[in-house]
Amino acid sequence: MFKIFDLHCDSAQNLLKGDDLSKVTRHHVDLPKLRKGGFGGVVWACWVSPKEKEPFLKALELVDSSLRFVEQHARWFSLAKSWHQLRADRINVILGVEGGHIFDETTVQFKTLHRLGVRVYTLTWNNSNRLAHSALDNDRLGLTRLGREYIKLMGKSGVLVDLSHSSTRTTLDVCRELATPPIASHSCLRGLKQFARNISDRALRAIGSRGGVCGVNFSGYHLGKSGVVEHIMYIKRQTSIHTAAIGSDFDGISDPVLPHAGHIQKLVGTMLGAGLSGPEIEKVCGGNFLRVFKQVC
After folding, report:
1. pLDDT in tens, 112-135
2. CA gyration radius for the chain?
3. What is the reported pTM?
4. Residue 149 — φ and ψ, nearest 5°?
5. What is the spatial distance between Cα 64 and Cα 15, in angstroms, rounded to a whole number?
6. Which CATH number fits domain 4-296: 3.20.20.140, 3.40.440.10, 3.20.20.80, 3.40.30.10?
7. DSSP string, 4-44
């Protein structure tokens, strides 16, 4: 069984609702499913709707509920703020926040989240914000002046900049200015399914050229007529196998091509059938992301 490190799960929403993810639930992700799937870790994304009246407060609530869950179930989970805190005997949780609209014109909120242990920052969601433009809003516009200040700060702070949902121009701007490798945590490929939310070839190659990674998400709509492994093979052809990863978007999508996290090992057989070697599959399942995490954090 290959150890899985998933770059994007939206399970924090379910924790905030009060669901007990230590038991079997109706959700894509819970402890029994993660154990069955052979997960070594997840990026626990705290997504905040742009419609929230107090988005930063919502982000804090999501982070707090996630921290409490990990603390209460320390037998199985461990919070990793850095490479040295990763544990081989636990499901490692790396905290992320999704959507730069949670930030105002200062950097205090970022610094607060950093102290709480948040290490992945998805610059945009489907909406543009004070920092950057999103692919669904305007693919030709990129970072703002404030966004450039944030990128410089993030580059010095040991955090991962996540470009899923970002416009192609935002991605190119970040790849030019960021001192560390970026990621696109949960993005299918526009070259296989023409959908603005999917990442363009130009953006993918920019991430790959910087040593970053792109996690393929499991949404049937995003994938189009191609499967997860076909998107992984597309990344390999456009850049290299070192850029490919898994970013399921479990609990953030309603149409996953796998029922839940417990089924994720089925991808391994499909990858073998597609001609990937054992070492290559190990990189996709988590090795590529962990390489970047070690370098940045």
Report:
1. 999 999 999 999 999 999 999 999
2. 17
3. 0.98
4. -65, -40
5. 10
6. 3.20.20.140
7. EEEEEE-THHHHHTT--TTS--SSS--HHHHHHHTEEEEEE
